[in-house]
Each structure stands twice: as C-alpha cells, then as structure tokens.
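User: Please predict the structure of the protein below. I'd like the answer in structure-token form so I can feed it into my own downstream comparison script.

Assistant: Understood. Taking the following sequence of 352 residues as input:
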Amino acid sequence: MTLQELLNTDMDMASLSALARQGLAWWVDELSTMLPNGLRERLSSRPRTWIEPRDQGGWRTWRDGRVHEASPPPRDVKIGLLAPRGAVLERDLTVPRMPAADVRRMLTLDIDRLSPLAPDLIHFDLEIIDRDGEDGKQKVRLGILPRAEARRLLAIARQDGFAPAALGTRSDREGVTHFDFLPQTVAALGETRSGGTRLYAWIAAVALIVLNLGILVGRDIIAVDRQSQAVEGQQPVVDAVQRLRRRVETEDAARRDLLARGRRGDPLRMLNALTQAIPAGAWVQHLEWNGQSLRIVGFRRQDVDMAAAIRGSGAFTNPRALTAEPSAAAAPVHPFDITADARPEPPAGTRP
C-alpha cells in the first residue's frame, strides 16, 4: 500500500494499529538481518527451552541446544514446541536479495507451486541462510508444515499444561531450531497471541530509536571535536600568516608614504609645474624648494598676478606674498616675493 492509498483509505484505529505493528515488525526484521548469526541468536526472543514429543509418549526437553533428560520444564517457563523431523518439509531456494518480509510475500504468491499440498492445508515459514550470494542473490530455506499436524502438536502440548511461545523444528545441526509456525497456527484457529511481548517490542523499538539518535549525536560530537583539534593544530600556522600579513601591510603603507613624499618633493616635477604656471610677463631671480614649500623672488609686469598663476597650476596651494605690493603709481615692472605650499598627494586608489 502506497502513502497516497493510505491517506485516501478510511481506516479505524485497529487497522492503523495493525499497520503500525506490521511496519515495526518489518523494521526489526531488517535490523536483525544486519547482525551476525551468533549475535542474532543471542538477542532473539525465541525460547531457549524446547520440548519435542516422543514416539512412545512424553516429551524430550532441549535446553540451549542440548538434550536435557532430567525432567520436563516447569509450566511457567517460556518454551517452544518442536515438530518431529519428518513432519516438516524443507527446501532450499535461491531468490533475489531482498528483505525477509518481501521474500515472504513473494513465496506466498508462489507457494502452490513450491508445496506438494494445497496452500489452505499448510503453514510455511522461511529463514535466510546466506545473503551474500552472487549476482544479487540470496539463499533461503522454506519449511512447510501441514495444518493438521500443527493443530495436533499444539493441542497435545496444551493438554499437558504447556503454553508454547513458538512452533519450529530442529535443523540438520542437532539442537539448532528454526522456523516458527505458531503465528499462522494460532491465526488459523481464530485465536490471538498473548500481547505480553508487545510491550517489549515497543520498548525495543524506542530503545533502538534512542540508540540511533545517540549514535548520530555521538558521531556529530566526534566530528566537531576532530574539526576543533584540526583548527587548533593549524593555529600556529595561522598566527604566523597573520603576523606576516601585518608586516607586509606595514611595509606597504611605509612604501606608499615614501613614494608619495618623493612625488611631492620631486624638484623636476616642481620645476615643470612652475614653468607652465609662470606667465610670460614675469622673471624669476631666486628659487627655493625644500620639498614642502616653494619661494620664488623676481620681477613682474604690473598686469601679471603671480599668486593667481601659481594657484592655477594645480601643484601648489595657499600662495601668499612675503612683501607688500607696490602702489599703482609705481613703475610698470614690480618685484615679487611669493611662497606657496605643495598640494597634498591624493589618497591611494582615488582620483586627484
């Protein structure tokens, strides 16, 4: 059932609960298949004590994979019921690699071909033997038990006061059990299994969720810690680079300032600007230049404004006369003594 079909379907709480249990079972089954066989058997909820009917009557007890002949197990111990070896038909199949729940659905559609009996006369179960087959294949073992035999075994066990928690059979390796026909047997009888294990299933699900979250948080913490250690390990290199950068920036600023002062104090630059600024009606007799200020002494015609000419050159600012200007009645040629300041260099990166 797809998500769209689920949203468009009218379901009661019982149906939703059944779907939730089915999804939880599928999730637990997928997680269990990722575990090694030995660890999976230890963590399995299957009983550790099994009873097997004898041909002459009575029960043979298996505990932890070994025959225990001392006495039958107590009635309050969780036990499993073993079907006789000849009652279960086993068959190994090679199927595409997929989850056990999907394999079960596939075998359900093909069980009439795989079983010598009609599907309504049998119960079947499977276990995955080898998931690492070639070409994306896996090997599974199919077990088929007649319904009549399953009902008979369950009835005689209950008559003797046992309440089996599983119904399986022994494999070729003595003492090792597999399959569980009890859920299908109980469902065929119209009964419901005890919900005692439901609480444990939900607890296990919550524990697994918390474990997954803990693993994710732990991985993030470890990753952050490793990143912090890497940053701390590179800190001396970063400090050295920063010191080198500050030194380069200081030297660059000093170089720029030196170049700016050199440009301002360049006598050739000053002479070129002054030559272009002095008009034709002026003659310079004395010139002083210290890189910052300019002083020129000479003669000019009466109609020549030396301060305006120097200001208009663009290379000097604040031109001013050091002597008083002669009166208009004086001779047509007048002396001048003017000083001016060099125009500051514009900041780097800006237009003058």
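That's the full token string. The chain is about 45% helix and 25% strand.
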